[in-house]
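Researcher: Let's do a round of design. I'm pasting the structure tokens now; please hold your answer until I've finished.
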């Protein structure tokens, strides 16, 4: 989770620094630092909520750097007392990809809410975050880290359906992963964007010719059309950090089965909390599942299949 001044406010500082950083070898490093804000800290009491989660370690050799990488993650299995989706014996798996600034323990509240929706959840820290290998992360490295975690899930839990979730910056990483693998059951993103350029262009310096100077692109809007599974895009109506229009634009660029959920009153931080019932309804409607605790939808939900021409509003209870 992020404070209002962090993450893309820092991206805005890229603009201020372009005049003296252009042509400087540190431009790429500055952008990576501003965008990811790697940290070993969590926010508030979130770390306490992660105490009952299991530590996971994922080791692999990085093709991007040529070095050995060790990722730290948290594993929270589905509640054995709850029935699986559609009465299945095993719960679906979810790879959770967090946003900037906080380590994986900072996402503990969202991880638990995903468990409440019926998932067994693996959440990871990218390089540079938490206990993972200490290295300044980059777009390429984050994509590589997500792929390693995805492969770990397949190895450790063969035969179970796997879903991808990403919040904020993690949403861009999730879209990239989903566009490259062919075995995901579905992709869910919340509070995410179309590209770094689109985010910066929406700031007061956005009229400047920034595209040639951006080294970390996160071009989700160019990749979302290549997903091979249903896509759920969730956004808070009051998100002032990543505007809902960017989430809507990403949704519109997707070509397969998809749904867009706008949570009234939701900010960049509390949308999942406020929209839990809408999440349940969307999971059932888009993925054809009956998630534990299914009790309807309260808010705006638009769904569109690959063959349909216009979104169809869901019924509210």
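Researcher: That's everything. Go ahead.
Model: Designed sequence:
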């Amino acid at each position: 989770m992020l404070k209002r001044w962090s993450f893309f406010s820092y991206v805005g500082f890229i603009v201020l620094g372009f005049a003296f950083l252009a042509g400087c070898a540190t431009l790429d490093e500055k952008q990576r630092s501003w965008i990811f804000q790697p940290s070993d800290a969590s926010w508030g009491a979130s770390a306490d909520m992660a105490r009952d989660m299991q530590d996971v370690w994922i080791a692999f050799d990085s093709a991007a750097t040529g070095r050995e990488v060790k990722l730290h993650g948290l594993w929270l299995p589905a509640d054995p007392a709850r029935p699986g989706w559609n009465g299945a014996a095993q719960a679906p798996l979810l790879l959770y990809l967090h946003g900037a600034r906080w380590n994986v323990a900072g996402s503990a509240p969202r991880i638990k809410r995903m468990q409440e929706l019926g998932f067994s959840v693996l959440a990871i820290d990218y390089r540079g975050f938490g206990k993972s290998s200490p290295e300044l992360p980059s777009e390429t490295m984050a994509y590589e880290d997500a792929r390693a975690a995805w492969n770990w899930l397949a190895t450790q839990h063969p035969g179970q359906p796997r879903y991808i979730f990403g919040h904020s910056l993690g949403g861009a990483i999730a879209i990239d992963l989903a566009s490259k693998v062919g075995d995901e059951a579905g992709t869910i993103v919340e509070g995410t964007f179309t590209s770094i350029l689109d985010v910066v262009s929406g700031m007061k310096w956005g009229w400047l010719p920034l595209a040639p100077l951006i080294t970390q692109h996160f071009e989700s809007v160019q990749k979302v059309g290549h997903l091979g599974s249903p896509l759920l895009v969730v956004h808070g109506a009051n998100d002032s950090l990543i505007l809902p229009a960017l989430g809507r634009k990403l949704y519109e660029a997707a070509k397969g089965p998809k749904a867009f959920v706008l949570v009234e009153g939701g900010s960049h931080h509390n949308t999942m909390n406020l929209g839990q019932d809408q999440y349940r309804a969307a999971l059932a409607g888009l993925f054809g599942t009956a998630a534990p605790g299914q009790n309807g939808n309260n808010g705006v939900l638009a769904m569109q299949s690959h063959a349909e021409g216009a979104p169809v509003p869901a019924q509210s209870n």
